[in-house]
Protein 1
Amino acid sequence: MRDAPRVRERDEDDLAACVGVLDTVHRADGYPTIWPDDPAAWLGPGADGRAWVAERAGRIVGHVALVRPAADDVAPTLLRHGPTAPLAVSRLFVDPAARGLRVGALLLARAADAAHAEGARTVLDVVTTDRAAIALYERLGWTFLGTGRQRWAPGTSVAVRCYAAPAASRSLPRETP
Ligand SMILES: CC(C)(COP(=O)(O)OP(=O)(O)OC[C@H]1O[C@@H](n2cnc3c(N)ncnc32)[C@H](O)[C@@H]1OP(=O)(O)O)[C@@H](O)C(=O)NCCC(=O)NCCS
């Protein structure tokens, strides 16, 4: 289908465009809550993580990363899991001009598929006021694990809702062939 969104692995050359989209999202939605000093570094995903971008009509319109959870992340503590520790979705955002086109759903599915291939469940947390993101996770059948408080900066904590990906990755959405 013409202009259908496509997801591919992010590479180093994509970072500037990703930061541009993130800036637009921050102004529109207040995500991330605290604008990072070094947004390219904040996008990570760090040494043992992976990241993907969504493109539409030749432009980057969305981003997601899959990372090992930080030691003080709440979501992994709420999931009973087997020998493989869960991985965490982070840095998920979609350009406001490309919303409602299943870009977010495709990015989430790609991250969850990658974790599933390693035998890991995927977890995430979302600020309780991020209604679009909560609607997305619940629409896609992610399991609500509980609520908690997450610390992102010294001396501040925010209320979050935590979710785990559906157990079967085949229930996740697919790209249009
Ligand atoms: C959350 C976000 C990634 C959704 O991206 P998107 O590409 O518009 O989402 P999709 O088109 O894939 O939506 C899939 C489903 O989620 C639900 N959904 C998504 N946005 C919604 C909204 N604003 N209100 C209600 N439901 C919504 C819908 O059910 C939708 O399916 P449907 O249209 O067939 O009913 C996007 O709004 C965003 O970037 N928000 C700001 C950043 C953010 O909050 N990131 C998450 C941090 S945890």
Protein 2
Amino acid sequence: MFVQFRLFNPSQLSDIIEIARKNLTERYNDFVYLDIQKSWPSAFIVGMSDQTIAGFICGGISGDKEARILMLAVDTPFRHNGIGSGLMSLFEQEAQKVKVGKIRLEVRTDNLEAINFYKNHGFAVSNLLPSYYNDGSDAYTMEKILVKT
Ligand SMILES: CC(C)(COP(=O)(O)OP(=O)(O)OC[C@H]1O[C@@H](n2cnc3c(N)ncnc32)[C@H](O)[C@@H]1OP(=O)(O)O)[C@@H](O)C(=O)NCCC(=O)NCCS
């Protein structure tokens, strides 16, 4: 599989929304994606397999201390090919550039595949957030402390 990573372009919005709809449980209005891109364009990254959008990552910066991963999804047929890891590593590089001390994210407590993925990328559970999601499910906060480069 030939994989490339690019910055998100708004012309890709409908594909990104479809990947989010199929692979993430929370629903977001279309304008949310564009707002996220405006706030931190270099960290809104798309993984392409040939000409097909296979996954994406996006996030924000809270204050000057931490970066947050807001969405990470790889479409099912493209998983286990290193695309999620590639997106994560590029996101981390962007977080290093803005000199935040850590990356934070929330994940459903029953999403064991994602929790394991994050642990394998250096994240640890730091908090439990009861009823965090719209359907009443709990979340873990996971954090990765960034080593200064
Ligand atoms: C979590 C997620 C983004 C991972 O994406 P991915 O592209 O499958 O990630 P990778 O391929 O880099 O890694 C996944 C696993 O495949 C393995 N892998 C990577 N390349 C591989 C290869 N060429 N052959 C076999 N296995 C491989 C990795 O070791 C990894 O194992 P791990 O999860 O135990 O660390 C994806 O499962 C997903 O979109 N899940 C649904 C959405 C979701 O839950 N998002 C997080 C919300 S907080």
Protein 3
Amino acid sequence: MAGQAVLSVLREDGVVQGQEPEIAPDTLLHAYRTMVLTRHLDERAMRLQRAGRIGFTVPNKGVEAVQIGSAAALRSSDWIFPSYRDFGMALYHGVPVEQMLHGMFCNGLDNSRGRQMPVHYSFADPIRFVSISSPIGTHIPQAVGAARAAQQRGEDTAFLTSFGDGGTSSLGFHSGLVFAGVWKSPVIFLCQNNGWAISCPADKQTGSDGFAVKGEGYGVPGVQVDGNDFLAMYSAVRTAVARARSGGGPTLIEAITMRMGGHSSSDDPTKYVPAAMLESWAKKDPIVRFEKYLRRRGLLDDAQAQAALAAAEAQVAAAVEAAEKAPLPATETIFSDVYAEVPPSLRKQGRDYFEMMSRHGEAAAGDGAFPL
Ligand SMILES: Cc1ncc(C[n+]2csc(CCOP(=O)(O)OP(=O)(O)O)c2C)c(N)n1
Ligand SMILES: [Mg+2]
């Protein structure tokens, strides 16, 4: 592993320098439009948060090729155990933007009826996108467990679990890799090395030469990939998925990229990210690079690029309007979808609560400050 080259396909000017994967033009354009949509949604979400219209969001800028390159290599019948930054994976597979906005506004149309943290999405359809876990790394062994069930049923489903450079210091990462190595699990471990775990730089996160090398001790092959290169990400994940489906076992992919925004909307990265570092990564922008490639191939022109942005803006604007207008979850929903039959102790608590509410009124939005 050490000394192996970082997989890359596209140069920064959009010229192919490595093994170009075969991808249908329609798929390339869908990926491009999803990258543009993801970026626009991200910018809009930050503005909504700054305006006090939503409480919280998690910036995605700069990691669009990691997310969408990976998602494009999966079937909708595969499973994703995502990190909290993976909006683009869900959008690529057709999760409506409205659903994402309902989650941001924590309204009554949100899948989890506003009971999850904001932007901690889960979707059963059109892709199995398992509820985002805030505790770092806990979803990694969950992916291996779900993959075990698929193995036992004789299915060829692939399971992708995504986490950060910081996530490799969690117990979940190590226990997930132990079991996956032994069971030859059909799992793709996607480590998004975006330079930082909040303010902790990646070079303080590990004593090893990168993160892909960590698979070796568990019998899991690792590969480092240029995470700002859509084609390289697609190639690496497609190879790992083929390996997983054919019983070859798991792969650890380290996508080398950079978080171009804050850790979350509650973070101020100017306090710790050197400006020069951001400037040098801005030159490697994954959308700009992919766009140059598409133009070189004659698949995209100015009018189509403008149309992609206009479509993203219109979709997000309509979704914001719908989500902001939607009613908040009804208070009674705290007791629904949890138990098939609500136990007597909870029924009593519910009755007490509603009785108190009838005397004091319901809490208003903003009564409790969001703690993050
Ligand atoms: C078990 C646990 N410890 C600490 C935290 C607080 N925390 C939230 S995100 C984060 C950093 C994660 O960094 P990384 O895995 O690199 O992901 P990134 O945010 O860069 O995508 C930390 C320490 C947490 N959520 N869970
Ligand atoms: Mg990180």
